[in-house]
Amino acid sequence: MESTIVIVNLLGAVALLLFGLTQVKDGVTRAFGVKLRTILATSTRNGPRSFVSGFFATIALQSSTATALTVASFAERDLIRPRMAQIVLLGANVGTAVTAWIFATGVAWLSPLLIVSGIVLRKGSSNARQGGGTALVGVGLMLLSLHLLSNATEPMRASPALGAFIGLLDDAWPVALILSAAMAFFSSSSLAMVVLILSLASAGILSTGLIIVLVLGANLGGAIPPVIATMSGPAAARRITLGNLVIRAIGCAIAMPLASYGAMALQQLPLSESMLPVDAHLIFNILLTIVAWPLSGFVSDLMAKVVPSDVQSDDGPRFLDKDALDTPVVALANATREVLVIGDTIERMLIRAENAFKHNDLAPLTEIAALEKKVDQLQQEVKIYLSQLGRKGLDENDARRSITVIDYAINLEHMGDIIEKGLCEQIRKKILNGFKFSDEGYDELKTLFDMTIENLRAAQSIFVTGDFALARRLMEIKIDIRRLEKRSSGRHLERLRDGLMESLQTSSLHLDMLRDLKRINAHIVSVAHPILDESGILGESRLRTAETRA
Question: 451, 454, 448, 472: which is closest to 527 by C-alpha?
Answer without folding.
Answer: 472
